[in-house]
Amino acid sequence: MTAGEILDADERRNGKPADPAFDxxxxxxxxxxxxQDEEWCEVxxxxxxxxxxxxxxxxxxxxxxxxxxxxxxxxHCDSPRTVCSLLEAQLxxxxxxxxxxxxxxxxxxNGMVGEELxxxxxGRLVGVDIIEEAEMAxxxxxxxxxxxxxxxxxxxxxxxxxxxxxxxRLNTLVTVAALGYGDIPPQAxxxxxxxxxxxxxxxxxxxxxxxxxDEGDSEEEKSGFSKLIDHMLEEGILTQRDETHYRHRxxxxxxxxxxxxxxAEKHGNVSREWVDKVAA
Length: 280
Known about the structure:
Elements: H1 3-14, E1 24-25, E2 40-45, E3 48-53, H2 57-61, H3 66-74, H4 79-93, E4 102-106, H5 112-119, E5 124-129, H6 132-141, E6 148-151, H7 159-167, E7 172-175, H8 186-193, E8 201-207, H9 224-234, E9 238-250, E10 256-266, H10 272-279
Helix pairs in contact: 8-10
């Protein structure tokens, strides 16, 4: 399937995207290929054309509607729907009520995932992001989606923030399109995981290459996330319930970028020793 056919299929499934508010131009298709964390585009603003690196989220969130147009209207990101639908399916299998979920949305951004979770009619939703502009954008673009929102570095949480999150009695962790490129490092994921009660749900996605290591890879060659998830599964503190390999979005050159979405159940905390080891 060509990139154009993929876009046409997305529009048939999700409906015609809204009329674009910004003129956006991507790098030439025959230009140099860069990894996701170096992708960029140019946007025409009142002062002229301006380049935005995709992982400079604080700049994207500061302009209403720009994040959505780049990633959803133009590059057809499908991860919020995919991860939340996978979680919803497992809730149905377990005959669990979504209204009992007290969800921590890590890397919450401007609320795209929160909006999908709200559709499930969950009981409580708490957002966490390290970027102040993310919380401001969520309040601006999707007021009322989150019951609480914290701007905090999970790897260096003040005691007051840690206590507030523990007091939420969280039983579900969701993180979408935020792992694997340094935005949320493995130790931050572990800290968030440890805030969730035992037998709680964990739903996340990550670029396939960060989990799919070659069998002969040494420990040094494995990614931090690969080592952490392997450890959690081997120790029985995480039980995988479902997994899907899917197209996360298109690259700036129109090529599919593939991720893995996972839903699992928690059975214990990651030890401080392992959190420190992953951070080393």
